[in-house]
Amino acid sequence: MARLAPRASISAVLARPLAAALVADPKALEAFYASTDLTPQMLADAEARLSPAQFCVAWAETIRLSGDPLLALHLADAMPVGAFGIVEYVCRAAPTLREALRQWVRYLGILDDAVEVGLVASGPHGALRVLTESEAPAPASHELCFAVVARHAKAMLPGRFRIAEVRFSHVVSAARRADYRAFFECEVTFGALHTEMLIDESVLDAPLPTADANLEAILVPLAAAQRGRAAPHPLLTDQVRRALRAALTSDDAQLEGVARRLGLTGRSLQRRLKDEGTVFQTVRDEMRRELADHYLGQEMSFAEISFLLGFSEPSAFFRAFKRWTGLTPLERRSTLTSDMAR
Fold first, then answer.
1. Boundary (domain end) residue, out of 166, 197, 228
2. What is the domain range of residue 258?
3. What is the average pLDDT value for the chain, to the nearest integer?
């Protein structure tokens, strides 16, 4: 069965505030999960990713179900420090606002690689601009991004930070535009050519009180490594693999057990894996084979490896490994030992 190549995706971190906005209304929250094909277990997974289409639907449904057209602005007001993890902390450790925004656009892909954002010159201003839009745009997500940047920058640079203008390519009703102007404390244009936030050059060069060169030196390599670690599997397949790693030694690595860990039924999990070009048995065999190779390279007994891979006995592991590779585990270990000795 052909495997589909990984595509652009968005971290579950960015969808958590949307689910949280509906938590007081269980029926609305249930409708949110049903419409997005997500589950609470998926959003709790720190490494889980959404498709651009899921993220677009998540925003649209949250606004509809909450009845709050200004949801992005209200979420920004409630967003705690550190909500965006390492991406945010790298920015906070930067020496100036300009460098913080450069770090933001450099490492944004950790959170959302479906869009490209840049810090570009625009006359007397620097523009935090959306350069490439997602294949399934979620306009309110840009509102939230700019609102969060504005809130944090204003808190770090009280009395000094100001925005020259905010421009959105999407359109909102005329009745709501005053709310945006009040929030950003500047002119806000809708239906613009670019989605961007303009900041005076002098403001961009303001030093940040949170600057920490030592912390930045630690965080930047970590963020760079995380940004460069592209998922080799489609979205749900990747989540199934992580669930399997936890399930293998607990005798719960069957279809229904893994489905429960993801908040799905077995039938739903198989259907969605089929959409990604694979089936559960294939994912489990590939995961076991990769882990087997890793364990065989260590000084572990075959009984230990068999247990860690979720086999009932070593003989079952031997048969499966022979089927996967054409070699016995003993032959494979010998090959690995020879390779390391060279």
1. 228
2. 235-341
3. 91
Per-residue tokens: 17: 């505030």
**For the CA atoms of 171, 173, 174, 180, what is the dihedral angle to 10 degrees?**
-70
181 and 286 fall within a common domain = no
165-168 and 196-200 beta bridge pairing = antiparallel
Tell me the per-residue pLDDT of 149-166, one tens digit each, with 9 for 90 and over: 999 999 999 989 999 999
Does pLDDT of 32 surpass 60? yes
Which domain CATH number covers 327? 1.10.10.60
C-beta neighbour count of 174 within 10 angstroms: 8
- How far apart, in whole angstroms, are the C-alpha atoms of residue 338 and residue 342? 7
Please count the CA atoms within 13 angstroms of the CA of 99 that sit on its side-chain side: 17
Establish how many alpha carbons lie within 13 A of residue 269's alpha carbon, considering only the half-sphere containing its beta carbon. Answer: 25
Whether residues 163 and 290 share a domain: the answer is no
Q: Are 233 and 6 contacting, i.e. CB atoms less than 8 angstroms apart?
A: yes
Identify the DSSP state of 112: B
Indicate whether 148 and 285 sit together in one domain.
no
Query: In the structure, what pLDDT confidence band is assigned to residue 312 with cuts at 50, 70 and 90?
Result: confident
Examine the domain organization and report whether 101 and 211 are in the same domain.
yes
Residue 128 forms part of a structural domain: yes
pTM for the full predicted model: 0.83
- Residue 55 to residues 19, 106, 132, 246: CA-CA distances in angstroms? 12, 21, 16, 27
Looking at 153-290, which runs of residues are DSSP E strands?
165-168, 187-190, 196-200
Residue 129 per-residue DSSP state: E
CA dihedral sign, ordered 6, 11, 14, 17: positive
Residue 236: both structure tokens together: 């749900």
Kindly give, in sequence order, each residue whose CB lies less than 8 Å from that of residue 205, ignoring residues fewer than 6 positions away. 96, 97, 98
Total domain count, the chain: 2
What is residue 82's three-state secondary structure? coil
Asked if 252 and 301 sit in the same domain, the reply is: yes
Amino acid at 302: F
